[in-house]
Amino acid sequence: MANILEYKCPCCSGIIEFDSGTQKMKCPYCETTFDPSALLEMDEALNQQKPDQLEWETPQEQFSEAETSGMNVYSCKSCGGEIIADATTGATHCPFCGNPVVLTSAFSGALKPDLIIPFKLSKEDAKAALKKHMSGKKLLPRLFSKESHLDEVKGVYVPFWLYGADVDADYNFKATQVRRWRSGDREFTETTYFRLERSGGLSFDDVPVDGSTKMDDAMMESIEPFEMKDVVPFQTAYLSGYYADKYDVDAKQSMERANTRIKNSTQEAFAATVAGYGAVTTESSSLRVHNGKAKYAMYPVWLLTTNYEGNTYQFAMNGQTGKFVGDMPVDKKLFWKWHLIYTAICGGVSWLLLYFFLLH
Amino acid sequence: MKRFLTLFLSVLLIGCLSLSVFAEDGLTIQITGMESDAAYVVDNANILSDSEEADLNRLAAEISQRQQCDVLILTENSIGTSTPDAYAESCYEAYGCGYGEERSGILFLLSMAQRDWCLYRQGETARQAISFNETDYLWSKCGADISGGNYFSGFRTYLNTADTMLSAYHGTLDEASRKAYQDGLETFLIGSENPSPVRTVRERPGIVKTTIIALIVGFLLAFLFSGSLRSQLKSVRMKYNAASYRRPDSMHLEVNRDIYLYANTTSRVIETQRTGGNGGSPHVTTSTVTHDSTSGKF
User: Fold this and answer.
1) Of A136, A203, A339, which is closest to B247 when you measure between CB atoms?
2) What's the gap in Å between the CA of B286 and the closest CA on chain A?
3) What is the 3-state secondary structure of chain B?
4) Are A197 and A346 in the same domain?
5) Which of A47, A106, A177, A178 is a Cys-bridge partner for A246, taking CB atoms 3.0 to 4.6 Å apart?
6) Number of folded domains in chain B?
7) Nearest-Cα residue of chain A relative to residue B202
8) Which tens digit of pLDDT belongs to each residue from B5-46?
9) Is residue A140 within 8 angstroms of chain B, CB to CB?
């Protein structure tokens, strides 16, 4: 069985967790608080512990190799219960005693993240944000907020790749200037064509790309940006009490998405240097990336899951900034009701305009 | 100066009772039944008695000669598919009406089949003396009689009012008449924000038609608002760029060059005519040359 890590309170031996409110480790039993950095040494000491040597006879019927290839089995240090988690799980809770556990093997060696942004917002903040997210939506089914069952609210550290690079670029634009004037009974139009050459560079820092296939990429980009002012070196202590995954999309695979976003931004930046022309089109472009570096980071995300009429709806909140996103269903009856109301208003205004002004 | 009189005498000389003129838009104008040599008034629609037509002719001739600006009346049973403005212009051009080099004159056209009226002005004198505001005022004075079938009274009012306007333009009105005219015009222009019942009822589009159009427009416009409400429920979208992660002040340009390639110049004839030809509403056409016209339904 793989190694797992539990942070136990030196005072009462209870399992301690990271508290987003105080930004410290806190024992939920005796309420003693500890500085995460103080636990760093303890973390390292725990890493030195030798794994348990527990030999068990296994049944004759075993999982096939295909079934076990994406699965890890852990033993809870508090109750001895068996924790089965997929290969990417880095932190979870024991299904038997509920204690938070960190699966250290997911973050050992080359898999260790460089950075982490600790949770700044709590589960209560996430629930309140969901309520606010639902309020004021005229087309949201009335029963959605009342009857939708909040299945799960969990804080997850999501693996992100952060890309930073200096970009050199050459752009050629074709632009026109149009001048009109009248002479006698004729109108003249002069269109002047220009070729615009732009070469230069700009830099990007920490462009994030979701490194987990479990997470919806659009949802993770929707809760951006994450602010680097709160970033700290990674410590497993921050994971305690939350869920965490290690990456299953590596830096090379994620690079394509980062390149697309960087290219689009570069295009916009160079196009913004063109002024005083009527129509501008890009004729050619060339981008070169220098000093590109990728960092591995864990970002805090609250995930909330509800169900309504048999469908599951997922929401996400940036655990640092509180930005909340999630698509919700449209009540078709309400849609047409409001459409008819707007038709009556717009039609009334149109009638007055047509009758008294336009057709007069 | 060419007159209707000349035209009709020529017609009589060639022994024709009808004259067809091909206008610039292909319009064929048929003028028939000249019964008088005083051709400032041509009543092809036969809505005036002989004596009425003769009286109006005498009055129109006197005004035209005194004001050095033709004041004309033309009635037709039908103007076919042509617009009143185009028909009036065609007649005016075809018969070479008007005084002086600028061929100044005003032609009042009535088409009985289409219930159209048109006041066509040519030359600076006519256009300055009877601008669009004055045209509306002129129609307000004579329109009620014409709409009510009192054509003789309506035409005489038209001639007298046009005479007053031309005199005011030339500055030959006495002080009392000038003041009365100015007061009447100002009162009309101020009151034109509350149009007369005749004008309101006849010139505005039908309620059913307006309501149908408004409902269609409203239904389509409502999608902007209901679509906006719908979009409130969708908040998950991919990011297009990485603008949030651009390092501040890192942008620098080493080449920033704008190179002139070539230039194209094209030209077109200015088409300034605008026509508001709907239903019963009066409409105005404007040309950059020398004439204006105002038309409507009666």
Assistant:
1) A203
2) 14
3) CCCHHHHHHHHHHCCCCEEEEECCCCCEEEEECCCCCCCCEEECCCCCCHHHHHHHHHHHHHHHHHHCCEEEEEEECCCCCCCHHHHHHHHHHHCCCCECCCCEEEEEEEECCCCEEEEEEEHHHHHHHCCHHHHHHHHHHHHHHHHCCCHHHHHHHHHHHHHHHHHHHHCCCCHHHHHHHHHHHHHHHHHCCCCCHHHHHHHCCCHHHHHHHHHHHHHHHHHHHHHHHHHCCCCCCCCCCCHHHECCCCCEEEEEEEEEEEEEEEEEECCCCCCCCCCCCCEEEECCCCEEEEEEEC
4) no
5) A106
6) 1
7) A360
8) 444 433 333 333 333 333 333 333 333 333 345 588 888 888
9) yes
DSSP string for residues in A163-194? EEEEEEEEEEEEEEEEEEEEETTEEEEEEEEE
Q: Of all residues in chain B, what percent carry a pLDDT higher than 90?
A: 16
A339 touches chain B (CB under 8 A): yes
Rounded to whole angstroms, how far apart are CA atoms B175 and A94? 107
- Taking contacts as CB-CB distances below 8 angstroms, the residues of chain A near B230 are 139, 330, 335
Facing A205 at nearest CB: one of B247, B255, B256:
B247
Which of A112, A133, A162 is at the close of a domain? A112
Low-confidence ranges of chain B (pLDDT < 50): 1-36, 194-202, 273-289
β-bridge partners, B269: A186
**A51 and A193 inside one domain:** no
> From the first residue on, what is the mean pLDDT of each consecutive set of 10 residues in chain A (360 residues)?
67 80 82 77 67 59 58 74 73 75 70 89 92 89 76 89 93 93 82 94 93 90 92 86 86 90 94 91 91 91 89 92 93 92 93 75
Task: For chain A, positions 269-298, list CB contacts with chain B under 8 A.
Answer: 269, 273
- My answer on whether A312 and A343 are in the same domain is no
Is residue A129 within 8 Å of A317, Cβ to Cβ?
Answer: yes
Say if residue A193 is in the same domain as residue A242: yes
Is residue A8 in some structural domain? no
Q: Which residue of A has its CA nearest to B226?
A: A339
Q: Is A264's CB within 8 Å of B233's CB?
A: no
**Nearest Cβ partner for B230 among A201, A222, A330:** A330
Q: Does A313 touch chain B (CB under 8 A)?
A: no
Contacts of A139 in chain B (CB under 8 A): 226, 229-230, 232-233
Across chain A, which distance is largest between two alpha carbons, in Å? 103
**Residue B250 included in any domain:** no
CATH of the domain at B10: 3.10.310.50
**What range defines the domain where residue A253 resides?**
123-329
A217 shares a domain with A310: yes
Count Cα atoms within 13 angstroms, Cβ side, for A5: 28
| Count of structural domains, chain A | 3
Residues A243 and A341 in one domain: no
Residue (of A158, A269, A164, A267) closest to A223 by Cα position: A158
Residues linked to residue A296 through DSSP beta bridges, in sequence order? A161
Determine, yes or no, domain membership for B262: no
> How close does chain B come to A209, measured CA to CA in Å?
11
